[in-house]
Design a protein that fits this description.
The chain is of the alpha/beta class and 193 residues long. It contains 6 helices and 13 strands. It starts with a strand and ends with a strand.
């Protein structure tokens, strides 16, 4: 039976690069890959998945109200596997559908995303994946202090932000990967703010 796999890490831990490299390798081996992403992630355009290292690919997108099994049924039947980037923006129902694709259609589903938001709260999609994924992989990135970065700290000119809306798209201009200690102590760039 095929498996549902979740690979998570803080921002900048190469999740998207790994997803796109996996797609490339599978395509090179003759496999038909259905590449998906939630429409919430529109930083690089509505249908583009782009890694910070510069590789990119076109993906099919879905909204939070979409049923993946309905919207992509023809593609699911034709593909050999599914890859989903920024999966944390998916709903619980959509994660259950991804599990069904693996179990009932016997198609491997590889998902990539964040574990928690800037307040250390689970994203709905990530929380469900921790419950349902057959395989969970954590990627590591170092905080500037040398500890493992597990927090996607949101910041502005005044320092780390601890309250606000869960989703605020941005990259290195709004978020920085920190260890828990630096996050709690308000340390950004290796110094106290």
């Amino acid at each position: 039976m095929a498996k549902l796999e979740f690979t998570y890490g803080s921002m900048g831990s190469s999740k998207t690069a790994l997803a796109l490299m996996r797609k490339f390798a599978l395509n090179e081996s003759g496999f038909n890959v259905l590449l998906l992403k939630p429409s919430t992630d529109n930083r690089d355009g509505s249908v583009i998945i782009k890694s910070r290292v510069g590789i990119e690919a076109e993906a099919r997108t879905y909204d939070t109200h979409d049923r993946i099994l309905v919207k992509f049924m023809d593609e699911i039947l034709d593909c050999d596997c599914v890859i989903v980037d920024e999966v944390q923006f998916s709903t619980k129902t959509q994660i259950i559908e991804l599990k069904k694709i693996a179990e009932e259609f016997n198609k491997p589903v590889y998902t990539y995303g964040l574990r928690t938001d800037f307040q250390l709260r689970f994203f709905e999609g990530s929380e469900e994946l921790f419950k349902l994924a057959d395989v969970v992989n954590g990627l590591t990135k170092k905080c500037e202090c040398g500890n493992e970065a597990i927090v996607n700290a949101r910041y502005d000119d005044n320092g780390i932000i601890y309250e606000g809306e869960q989703v605020l798209l941005g990259s290195n201009d709004k978020y920085k990967s920190l260890c828990y200690s630096c996050y709690k102590k308000g340390r950004l760039n290796g110094r106290r703010n």
